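SAMPLE LOG
Freezer: B-3
Tube label: C17
Construct: single chain, 215 aa
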Amino acid sequence: MTLKLYGWFASAPALFVAVILHEKQIPFEWIEVDLAKGDQKTPEFVASNPFGEVPTIDDDGFVMYESRAIARYLDEKYPDQGTRLYPKDVQKRAAVDQAVWAELTQFYRFGVRILYETLNKRFFGREPNMELVEEAKKSLLAKMDVYESILSKQRYLAGDELTLADIVHIPVGSRLIEEAKVDLGEGRPNVKRWFDEIIKRESWQKVKPIYMNRI
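STRUCTURE (predicted):
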């Protein structure tokens, strides 16, 4: 049975899971859940995701939500298939987890606020709050200074090998740079080098049409 991915075309977490599925070379079916129409609040969908959010996967009857947990599950189920997202060494794995949690609290929460206000609100017929955008941008760019320091010492966020910690940044980072026109790498050569590399990955190029064909 082909894995089913329930997502919304403008949901960064759903797009991230699609990237992971391509990285792991796992065939999947994308099933659109229209958040603007409230599809995520139907009893049928809430039965699979009690929070009424995307993404959710159905892996031959095993239903799971929360994008980062899904990524770890897929890497552990298919450890030798596609891109290895977590190293085998326990300390290196811990470094990946550390960077993934940092992404959620230091990058995603500011980046997704910018995307929601400047790009996604239009799908709900709402006006952007540019004051919130500027506050989020200021905070995010300050975090990018920390990223610059980390990436000046190593190629990737958790060391010198690509891991989940890098890939998790792709959907939000790409949309910030290419659509919201936030220059995350300005004055930060290592951040620029890193983003230039990860957003060109084949997995993201395969996923981008899910979003780009709808705007």
